[in-house]
Amino acid sequence: MVSAQSVHSQNIDLLVLGQLRSSPGVSRVELARQLSLAPSTVGAYVDRLVTDGFLRERKGETVTAGRPPTIVELSPEAGQFIGIDLDAREVHGASVDFAQRLLRDRSEMIGARESANEVIDRIIQVIEYVRDPSRKLLGIGIAVPGTVDTEAGRIIHYRHIRGWHDIALADEIQTQFDVPVAIENNIRAMAFAEHSFGQARSVDDFVCLGIRSGIGAGVFIGGEIHRGSNKTAGEIGAWPCVANATSSNPIESVQMLEEVASLRAILDRVTEQARAGHAPGVPMTRNRVTLEGLRTAIEASDAVAIQILRESAMVIGTAVTQLSLAIDPQRIIVSGPLAPEEVFVTQLRETVRTLQLGHRSEGPVVVASELGPLAGALGAASLAIESWSPVADTESKDP
Predict the structure, then answer these.
(1) Helix/strand/coil for 379
(2) For 58-70, how does the pLDDT look when each residue is reduced to its tens digit (9 = 90+)?
(3) Which DSSP state fits 69?
(4) Which uninterrupted H or E stretch holds 260?
(5) How many CA atoms are closer than 13 Å to the CA of 201, on its beta-carbon side?
């Protein structure tokens, strides 16, 4: 049983470690000032964390006459955390040291017919690959698509992987590796990554828009992730949108947003045009347009591919505008494989700006993520770090 004193110690430890992650390399006095705690209190906890190997000290640069200050910082050698990001197409994995520096990464494709059990086996293989055998494994974070119960560590449902529902994924992975495992929706994990070291480091209210096989939104409000009462906040891929406004039956014309404008839907539309001979310049692999083929077509300024990309950006921009008007974010961050495509992000930005004109004097800033394909994995690793406790870790060593 963890004592009340241990709980208090854990809170202070986490405050110290969290502050050093956001403000690395500060003196004890400055750390105490940032935390609004007594220097003697902070000093005692720093001493213990240094003894336990989680922090280290070094001499800082001298800016005035006298002795150089002693700087406190996270010890990279204290251990490692692993993050896994899963969507219907790929598994991305990354390991980071205790100071959140990237150690190893790995990406593997998922077969279209792979079952839930096969996907879990692939996740385990990626964890083994990115794990650094020279460092202690402290925790694992897993970002998965669809609806999840983060507290129970269970998969609720995702329709693009066969059998991917009602799975105690955290328990399965924890049994395999004997460390704490945190489960989160993958788009929310991307939002965590942006908040930790991406486009939202100093932003408390923002939306991370993930566009991959599906479409989702990671929503931060007041500096905290918003999950909703049923853990489905941000599932805008199921947002109804009118695909054919001229239909005589409005209900029949409604489709889900991800059926119209996800990466999967975009590739399907471009493939259809290429097969019909309307886009002869678009390369295909096995009679389908891949993401790489789409990028090649965009670089070659293929009119059909660019038009489909712009139309999809306008559809998503319409949905994002509705979301923006509801929660008033400071920033919208486009993440996923389409984030590097300037024509897509520019059209989405222009759609949001145009539709919000008149509703408010200034719309949210729309930017592209700069974290690349590892955004979700790095966000999952950040979740593992937030879920980890130095007190629990050191107490687990006691006989």
Answers:
(1) helix
(2) 887 765 556 778 8
(3) P
(4) helix 257-261
(5) 10
Report residue 350 as tokens: 């222009």
DSSP strand E in 98-214: where?
102-109, 137-144, 147-149, 154-157, 165-167, 181-185, 206-211
Task: Output the six-digit token pair for 58.
Answer: 């070094």
Q: Are 209 and 367 in contact (CB under 8 A)?
A: no
In angstroms, the CA 290 to CA 108 distance is: 16
Q: In what order do the strands lie in the sheet with 80-86?
A: 102-109, 90-97, 80-86, 137-144, 181-185
What's the CA angle centered on 188, arms 182 and 192, to 5 degrees?
A: 80
Instruction: Give the pTM.
Output: 0.82
Q: How far is CA 76 from CA 21, 54, 395, in A?
A: 12, 8, 21
13 touches 44 (CB < 8 A)? no
Tens-digit pLDDT profile for residues 121-151? 999 999 999 999 999 999 999 999 888 888 8
pLDDT tens, residue by residue, 223-246:
999 988 888 889 899 898 865 555
The closest alpha carbon to 192, from 224, 148, 154, 238, belongs to 224
215: closest CA among 244, 181, 186, 194? 186
pLDDT in tens, 77-90: 999 999 999 987 89
User: What one-character-per-residue DSSP string does 204-237 give?
Assistant: SSEEEEEESSSEEEEEEETTEE---TTS-TT-GG
Nearest residue to 266 via CA among 288, 235, 242? 288
In this predicted structure, the answer to whether residue 113 has a pLDDT above a threshold of 90 is no
Q: Provide the pLDDT for residue 394.
A: 57
DSSP 68: P
Q: Order of strands across the sheet with 165-167?
A: 147-149, 154-157, 165-167
Tokens found for residue 45: 């906890």
State the CB neighbour count (10 A cutoff) for residue 357: 10
Sign of CA dihedral 47, 52, 56, 57: positive
Question: What are the structure tokens assigned to 74, written together?
Answer: 């996270």
Which amino acid is located at 215 in the chain?
A: I
pLDDT score of 3? 39
Q: Are 329 and 191 in contact (CB under 8 A)?
A: no
Residue 239's identity, in one-letter code, is W
pLDDT more than 70, % of the chain: 89
